[in-house]
Design goal:
The first copy, chain A, is of the alpha/beta class. Chain A has one domain: Dihydrofolate Reductase, subunit A, CATH 3.40.430.10. Chain A contains four helices and 13 strands. In chain A, strand 5, helix 2 and strand 6 form a beta-alpha-beta unit. The longest helix of chain A is centred in the first third of the chain and has 13 residues. The radius of gyration of chain A is 16 Å and the shape is globular. The model of chain A has no long low-confidence stretch (mean pLDDT 92). Chains A and B meet through strand 10 and strand 12 of A and strand 10 and strand 12 of B. Strand 12 of chain A pairs antiparallel with strand 10 of chain B.
Chain lengths: 197, 197
């Protein structure tokens, strides 16, 4: 059964980007290893060099992806992945208002969070929907549409910036830690969202 | 050599207490296990029931403590530990202004962070100074006086409350994850602060 899984790198103090939307610190582990991993398509040219355990882990994550769901900010900051996150997997971009010009490649804009998750889930087949973007992860959490989180926790305190969990309602969200991988320079933590009812 | 080690339970989204200074959620793992642990003295009556791995871990932590350093808010919220955190270990309470009435038992008030750390370090002998309190941990981090952090990360999102890392300067603090223990309901993570220079 398809799961909706948020995947984000964050600092120990909860930031996914610094005050200038910079991600150099929280993505440092993506560039400090010995093993080359292509987590996006050759056309978008995103190649990373990570540690061996992180490389195995990223490869298994990519194999699980049936569709991408991303916030507009993340999508634009990533150069829209040149329309191809990897292998032409469909990309659903949650945005407040869709531009007149359609996005490149396999991407499409969707303005409603429920619609966006439904379309991505249908497109994912028997694989998972992987989700990028702090605001989008929060919107899905609030709507009860997030099944799991794959957090890549980096041993640094940024002090200020853009938080993964910000402006959340005071309702507590119970989680279950279901997988831990300690790579050098990053902890890969998989949490299941334990929904009420 | 004596280390100054902040030890705090926090939610995955970085809160050490809810909006009412409540700690039921982040301390849940302290009361949901099968093994009784006395982490404070019999006189203060603080007994916990934790899982077997967390119990072993807490016992080893307590054995390392030569002195306690705590913020005034934490000290007061904990009923001043009846003046005895455990075994009469000296307690140094960082406060903006010391009340006329002295604190109970082995506790004393100190108004300067540098003085407080120096006194606690001297009192700790060849053991460590364990530190409680978000504001106090931040003050020591800012002053370059914090050596390590022992974080007990609980799988819950509180959404709102009192954050461990709040109002921090934008200077990045590089850390090193040096020990991981995955207990049920809590991850015990030991980070070393990698000071610049």
């Amino acid at each position: 059964m398809t799961k909706v899984v948020a995947i984000m790198s964050m600092s120990l103090d909860g930031y996914v980007a610094d005050t200038n939307d910079g991600v150099a610190e929280v993505f440092d582990w993506y560039f400090s290893g010995d093993v080359e991993v292509l987590t996006a398509s050759a056309s978008s040219g995103m190649t990373f060099r990570v540690s061996a355990p992180s490389a195995d882990h990223l490869r298994s994550l990519v194999a699980e992806i049936g569709a991408m769901l991303t916030g507009r900010r993340t999508f634009d900051n990533a150069g829209q992945w040149a329309g191809d996150h990897h292998d032409g997997v469909p990309i659903f971009v949650l945005t407040r208002s869709a531009p007149d010009e359609p996005p490149p490649g396999s991407a499409r804009y969707v303005t409603d969070v429920g619609d966006c998750v439904a379309q991505a889930t249908a497109a994912a087949g028997d694989r998972d929907v992987l989700l990028h973007g702090a605001a989008t992860a929060q919107a899905c959490l609030r709507a009860g549409l997030l099944d799991e989180m794959e957090l890549q926790v980096v041993p640094v305190l940024l002090g200020q910036g853009r938080r993964l969990f910000e402006d959340m309602p005071p309702d507590h969200v119970e989680l279950q830690l279901v997988r831990v991988l300690d790579g050098p320079g990053v902890q890969h933590l998989r949490y299941r969202v334990r929904k009420a009812g």
